[in-house]
Structures are given as C-alpha cells and as structure tokens.
Amino acid sequence: MDFFDRLSSIKLDVQKEYNIILLGETGAGKSTLINYLTNYFKNGTLDNLKISIPSKHYEATEGLKHNEYNVQDASKSQTRACTVYTFRKQNKNTVYKFIDTPGLSDTEGVAQDEFNMQQIMGAAEQSGVLTAIILVINGTQTRATVTLCRTLCLLRSSIPDVLLQNLIVVLTNCSSATVNFDLARLEPWTVPMANVFHMNNCAFSRPVSQWTINERMKQNLEREWICSMECIGELIKNLKQLGGKATEAFKEMRINREKIKSQLQNLLLDVTKCQDLQNELDMMKTTQQNIATDITKYSDYKRSKLVEYTELVKCESGTRFCTMCSTPCREKFLEKGATSVYRVAKSIPICRDVVSLFEYMILDTCHCGHSAFDHYVRNVSPVKKTKTVEEILEDVKNAYDLSTKKNEEIQSEIGNLNTDMAALKRALDAMQEGILECCYQLKKLCSHFNFVDELHGIIGIMERDTCRLTSTIVRAEAETRIRSIKHVVDKLSSAGKSG
Which Pfam families does this one have (predicted)? Predict the structure, then answer.
C-alpha cells in the first residue's frame, strides 16, 4: 500500500497548467481584470492593492513585465502587445497563465486592428493548449456600438469553432442585477450562463484618496470588491472544469489565410504576365501578317518569255558550215523581200592545176573570212523558231526566301508563346483552385469567418488592375476568375450568416 500511496502522491505533484487568453475591445477592462486576478492570487486588499499593470491612478507594485503604452490617455488602447501573466494559488503545482492582449476596434484604425489580431492569434497558437477564451465586454453598454460590432465581427472571424465551447464572457463594470448588455448580441455564438460572469471592477477607476474620505463610497467599494473576488473564485473553479483544447486550429487558420492572400497576389502578378504574353503574341501575329503579305508579293519571282532560236532541219539542198565558227555561213545574202536566206552550197570543184586550186582557195572565200577548206556542207537548213521559257528573278527570289524563313521563325515563336500562355493559364487555374480550397478549409475551421473583410482589399486591387488590362481576352479571363472567387466568398459568407 505504501508504494501505491507514493505513486498517487507523485501523480498529484505533476504540474497542471491553465492557459487563458483575454479578448475584447479597447477600454473593456482586460488589463483591469488582470489586476483583479493579481489581487486574488496574491491576497491583495483594498488597503494593500497588488498591481501588475499600471493604470492612470496606480503604479505597478509586482515588478512584472507589461506592455502598456500611455496609461494617462484613456482615449487610446494601452496594451500594445500580448503579455503573459503567471499566477499560482494554494497548490503550487497549479499554474494559471492569463494572456493579456491589445484591445480591438483600436483608435488607430483598421490597420492597427488587423495587426493586433495577428498578434492575438499568434499568442493563442504559441500557447499550445488553451483552457479558455475570456471575452471581456463592458456590461454597461445598452446598445451595440460601432466599435463593439466591429470587435465581435473580428472575434467571430478569428476564433476556431473547436474553442467556442471554452468561451467565457466577463461583463465588467456591472453586477448581475445592473448589467445592460444583452447576450443575444453575441449570436450566432451561444454562451451558457454558467460561463457568464459579472464584475464591478471599479476599485482602480479612482485614486484611494477619493474613497478613503467617503465612508459610503468606501463601503460600496468594499462590497463590490468582495463580490468581485468571489466572482473570480467562481471563474477559477469554472476553468478547472473546462478541458484544454489544442490550438492547432489557430495554426491551420493562419496558414490558410496566408496562403489565400499569397495566392491572390500571385494570381494578380500572373494575370499581368498574361497581359505581357498576349501583347507579345499580338505583336508576333501582326508581324506574321506583314510577312505573309511580303510572301505573296514576292511569290511571283518566275517570269515567262518568248525566246528565238535556230533549229537545223533536214533538206535536199546543202548548207555550208564553218568549222571555225561552228555556224552556217552566209556567203552572200539573197534578198527575198525582207528575209535573208542562206546560199545553197556548191560542191568543191575538181582543180586540174595549181592555179585553179589557188583561185578556189583565195577567190572563193566565205564572208566569215575563213578559207573554203575550213567549211563543210550538210543537207540541213537552219530554221528560226521561238519557245516560251521561265526566267527566275534572283533579287525577287531572295526576298521571297527571306520572307519565308522569317515566317517559319515567327511561327515557331508564336507556338512557344502559345505554349507559355497555356502553361500560365494552367498555373492560374491551379492557384484559383488552391484559393477556393483554402476558403473551404477556413470555413470548416471557423464557420463565421468573415471572408468579405478578409479579402475585400485585395479583390478590390485585382478588380482595379483588371480594368487597366488592354487585351480584351486577358481582361475577360481575369474578370471571370474574380467573379468565381467572389461567388465562393459570397456563398461561404451567406452560409455563415444563415448558420
């Protein structure tokens, strides 16, 4: 039995840790709640206040790190960064870590709210396990102010559904009898009454000097102080009953949100690339049309013409040919109208003596100047004829060949551009599908995620840049993609409202 007793004591000594994050609009009282918690865990009293976070009327007493900006300016959010305040009570092995966060609906505007929300979600993610999310609301508000509506919208869009069962509401500056805030304003969230607490945490709203001299005020403060401490005790008891929830959902939400914005930016850049490719493609096609005109222009590089030539035709009479000139000889022209004819050749005479031979060689010469012995006679007659031949104009042919070569090169470049355009469109399709898939994943993680607020800015930029596109084809495709994304966003947003 001693062994089992020791084992049980070892199990009891294991440290328990409760991580609680405080959320709310600027001025709701998150930092004041931290100071009340400080007094609860450190046994503070009205006469001996324990201050973790300095305020307008009180200096910090516990030496804890804080991120308060200007405690004297109540018009602005004081907490500028998430800060963890660690407390222990009675059992030293039980640790409570309260994460104070910057106020939402900050006076610095929407950009500051977005930055603060990123810090809050980052702190929630890093905590690993969250026991509860405490929503701090000023309970004196009788109507839904613009800042409160903005805050609730931001929170609904940021808290995963898996953690809604661990949602606690602390209504400040009121009691259960004097509260003005209507919990119906939290819809579609439903918070069980066991998770709703009222605290009139007004002890830090005025300096000690004001209520110590006023007995009635002091009694009221003491009574409210006791009620607030009892309320915190009930809150701590409630925390112990809540099971911790892993904050993996915050990480998944962050990844999907970052991916959506990144992919939308890439989509915008690639649409611009489409415009550049289309411009280049249009220019290439114009160049190709000009080249096609040149090809047509230079395609007539062959010309037909009539050529005159002489053909030897067999005949009975002979014609003398000169072996030196290789042509028929015209010894003497016989005029027959306007036509020149060749003289019919005579046979070489038989020379009986040297004188006769000399006379034949010297006196009977051809007009070509060569002797009779340089000639011979054939029974053919030269006849002039004509025929049609094709002549190639070299300069035109060169221009045609150059234009044809350019056309082949342009056609190859157009093919490459078409391939690049098709690949880019496939990439755009994949990005669009990825964006829509991330939207659906976000909807599963946080059913009330505000897609309109989240994507309004970048979709507006996409629509603006789309109007600047000069290609009607690219613009039409870009507008179709934007409509598709907006349709899904509207569909998911409508589903969130109806849910």
Answer: MMR_HSR1 (PF01926)
